[in-house]
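Q: What residues go here?
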């Protein structure tokens, strides 16, 4: 396993693999790796000759400086986990060389409406930051495949849009959410949950499952049913100690509000417990 911080060096190595006809799967991360990341790496290994994992806490995608400052850093632990699963390259760039123009001067990528709803509405600028970092990472690594988790469902749609907009020849693969035994979606942020918050957090998944069952139980669900379910779920989350930011029943391919159940749906939740913001979703 090679560990490289230098951008040029990483670029040359990946170009060499491509020149030799060896394919690359890429898993971009912000570190603090958990079993969810390892499942993405497993998939990446099944697809290509080389797996590249990046670890970079991208300052551009944090709308809240405190969130950035307390983002967990576990580099040594991450490196030993990656050595165990034997990836070809771990790319750990420094912010100063990744954004040589200075973080405040980066021209960010805007991708339209998909970036301004739901997560985008609650975290202004977040998806422009994600699109910008991922586009630069793609340029350095030049992967054939890039693997992302379905937990960040909207992010996955943003990345697909990015690839389309810039006609990038990269297969974007989404992987199912990896959950703890009680249903809590794995996330680097879970590390910050207190014992009691951790215990309560599984309620989000229970609520998602219960909305899913309720939708299935209605013969022809419509706008009013979806609105009722969104409201009652918000109330249930509040009663369980959360501060919900949204509970949204949306069309899976556009993330626009669901009007009926003609197309596949996704239920998305963002809610805070204490100071920790959790997101989750479930397909219907
Ligand atoms: O999902 C993440 O961890 C980040 O948003 C990503 C894709 C690595 C970009 O910084």
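A:
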């Amino acid at each position: 396993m090679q560990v490289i911080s230098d951008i040029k060096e990483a670029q040359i190595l990946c170009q060499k693999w491509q020149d030799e006809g060896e394919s690359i799967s890429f898993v971009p991360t912000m570190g603090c790796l958990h079993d969810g990341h390892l499942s993405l790496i497993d998939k990446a290994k099944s697809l290509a000759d080389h797996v590249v994992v990046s670890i970079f806490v991208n300052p551009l995608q944090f709308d809240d400086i405190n969130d950035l400052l307390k983002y967990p850093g576990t580099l040594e632990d991450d490196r030993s986990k990656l050595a165990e699963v034997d990836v070809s390259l771990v790319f750990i760039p420094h912010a100063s060389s990744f954004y040589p123009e200075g973080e405040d001067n980066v021209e960010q990528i805007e991708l339209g409406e998909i970036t301004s709803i739901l997560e985008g509405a609650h975290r202004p600028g977040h998806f422009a930051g994600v699109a910008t970092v991922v586009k630069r990472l793609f340029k350095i690594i030049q992967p054939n495949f890039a693997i992302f988790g379905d937990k960040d469902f909207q992010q996955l749609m943003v990345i697909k849009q990015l690839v389309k907009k810039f006609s990038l020849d990269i297969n974007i693969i989404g992987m199912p959410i990896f959950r703890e035994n009680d249903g809590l979606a794995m996330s680097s942020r879970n590390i910050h949950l207190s014992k009691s918050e951790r215990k309560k957090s599984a309620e989000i998944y229970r609520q998602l499952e219960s909305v899913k069952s309720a939708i299935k139980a209605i013969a022809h669900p419509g706008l009013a049913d979806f609105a009722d379910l969104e409201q009652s779920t918000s109330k249930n989350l509040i009663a369980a100690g959360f501060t919900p930011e949204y509970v949204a029943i949306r069309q899976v391919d556009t993330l626009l509000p669901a009007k009926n159940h003609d197309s596949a749906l996704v239920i998305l939740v963002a809610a805070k417990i204490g100071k920790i913001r959790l997101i989750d979703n479930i397909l219907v």
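A: Context that may help when evaluating the design: The chain has a mean pLDDT of 96. The domain at 188-283 is CATH 3.30.1300.10 (Pantoate--beta-alanine Ligase; Chain: A,domain 2).
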